[in-house]
Design a protein that fits this description.
Blueprint: E1 3-7, E2 14-15, E3 31-35, E4 38-47, E5 60-67, E6 72-77, E7 87-94, E8 97-100
Parallel strand pairs: 6-8
Antiparallel strand pairs: 1-2, 1-3, 4-5, 4-7, 5-6, 7-8
Length: 101
């Protein structure tokens, strides 16, 4: 599955939408680009206390995934095994949440 990001044609800065201008240079022209959605776990934590609709999902793992193209995204992990450097792939996007496995 691919992940849609925004790229600055001036400096190559990558960002998750919505974004209306580049954070690295004065350009206000960002264009959509598809990335493969593969990367590795940069950092993670297991959530054991949550309220609202997330309480029924406890415990769950939230990870900072560094995509192969260099962009880092916050994501939920499927399964209960996680380690720094572990390879993961985007599985789906639900309610603006990236799910990797």
């Amino acid at each position: 599955m691919e992940i849609t990001v925004l790229v600055c044609p001036e400096c190559g800065y990558l960002a998750i939408p919505p974004k209306y201008g580049c954070s690295k240079c004065p350009s206000d022209q960002l264009v959509e680009k598809k990335l493969q959605g593969a990367g590795s776990i940069y950092s993670y934590t297991t959530i054991r206390v949550a309220g609202g609709k997330y309480a029924s999902q406890l415990p769950y793992t939230v990870a900072l995934v560094e995509l192969d193209e260099g962009l880092r995204v916050t994501a939920r992990l499927e399964g209960d095994q996680a380690s720094i450097g572990q390879r993961v792939k985007l599985n789906r996007v639900e309610e603006s949440i990236y799910w990797f496995k």
